[in-house]
Amino acid sequence: MASNRSDVADFKLAPKGKKRILWADQDMPVLTRIRERFAKEKPLKGMRMAACLHVTAETANLVRALQAGGAEVMLIASNPLSTQDDVAASLVKDFGVHVNAIHGENNKTYYQHIVAALAFEPHVTMDDGADLVSAMVFVAHDRLKDVHPQVAAWAKKIKPADRASAFERIIGSMEETTTGVIRLRAMEKDGVLKFPVIAVNDAATKHMFDNRYGTGQSTIDGLIRATNMLIAGRKIVVSGYGWCGKGVASRARGLGAQVIITEVDAIAALEAAMDGFAVMSMAEAAKVGDVFITVTGNKHIVRREHFLAMKDGAVVCNSGHFDVELELPALEAESASIVKDVRPQVDEYKMKNGKRIFVLGAGRLVNLAMAEGHPPSVMDMSFATQALATEFCVKNKGKLSNMVHNVPVEIEQYVAREKLASMGITIDKLSTDQSAYLTGWEHGT
């Protein structure tokens, strides 16, 4: 049944979307088990939840679990190019979820959907980059000049005296990304965070697998789908050697690429070097790279001087977070012309110096803009952690301080054990004697 709180591209796409959702579901056994328990226990009964996430088949199955737990859910897109329109349509029509997400939505529509989520008056939020929470914080602190005009216009309809208390109903929020956690810790440091946040991204069951294996595979998948490029023999420059960078670098090397790492952190750069990768500055790498992939979560990693130094035909893309990793306004200023869609979502910048630079997905996340994002199997772990963290947050209403919290280790261990079981893997257990040895001091060597 369609929701009048929803804004999607085309409800006629729903049958295709339902097939996609159910296909992903069969490879998400841990989340399925949680959904089945939630359906019986209803730990989220009465909760309104607003989730600003990538609207994909995998996310749809997270939403189904939350809904099974008794929550009323509104889902909005965290990235204009990641929305799968058929999935969005199916969530509304087949599962009764409120969805505000359209593939390729412009900035105005994006913030229209942010406002829809705020007006939903959620008790719990989920974020993929902290855009939703940051809007809430600006409104709560009456900093309407610092927030997007559409959000400010909505907030002005609330009496000034009520804005500070407008979000007191928020029990907590879950954050899915490295970028978002950084922003939220900055809010905590500045004393402006108005409710507790659980850093789902920082859970080992998320970043060690989702960021490394998910981003690694889906980024290369996006690159290949976008360009039909042979990876073997290419010089691929990976900017950033965190978990995402490690995943991309290892997958590129596995396909025969000559991988170059750029870093600002000495320890990460040293690790990359000892892992067998070439490590150099971006100024050096720009001269030799065939493909450039940013995975840092920071801004202007590839700048004007780097574009100018690149060889003719270089391919540039981002798999970190926001499109600001690439200084695209500078590239545009250095270009004599821009040819859009020389292949789907591949733009050719013909520079004044005669060279051509190809940008994938307008600098948005290449693994979602050009491919389907992370495979369901790895998102099974991330979203199982999300669902259980949400349950933990609701069960501990009023007990968590207004700061960024780690996911309880018990949740991570449960998710890991269940994932191993679904893979048919058994592991050893410590004996009583071994446990005593590891926790005591009396025994010597």
Give a structural overview:
With about 450 residues, the chain is an alpha/beta fold. The protein has two domains: about 10-205 and about 375-420, Adenosylhomocysteinase-like (Rossmann fold, 3-Layer(aba) Sandwich); about 215-370, NAD(P)-binding Rossmann-like Domain (Rossmann fold, 3-Layer(aba) Sandwich). About 45% of the residues lie in helices and about 15% in strands. It has 19 helices and 15 strands. The strands form two sheets. An eight-stranded mixed beta sheet has the order 9-8-7-10-11-14-13-12, with helices on both faces. It has a seven-stranded parallel beta sheet with strand order 3-2-1-4-5-6-15, with helices on both faces. A hairpin with a 4-residue loop joins strand 13 (about 345-350) and strand 14. Helix 1 crosses helix 4. The model has no long low-confidence stretch (mean pLDDT about 95).
CATH topology of the largest domain: Rossmann fold
Distance between the termini: 67 Å
Assembly type: single chain
Overall number of domains: 2
- Beta-strand content: 15-25%
For the record, what is the CATH homologous superfamily label of the largest domain?
Answer: Adenosylhomocysteinase-like
| Anisotropy-based shape | globular
The major β-sheet equals: 8 strands, mixed
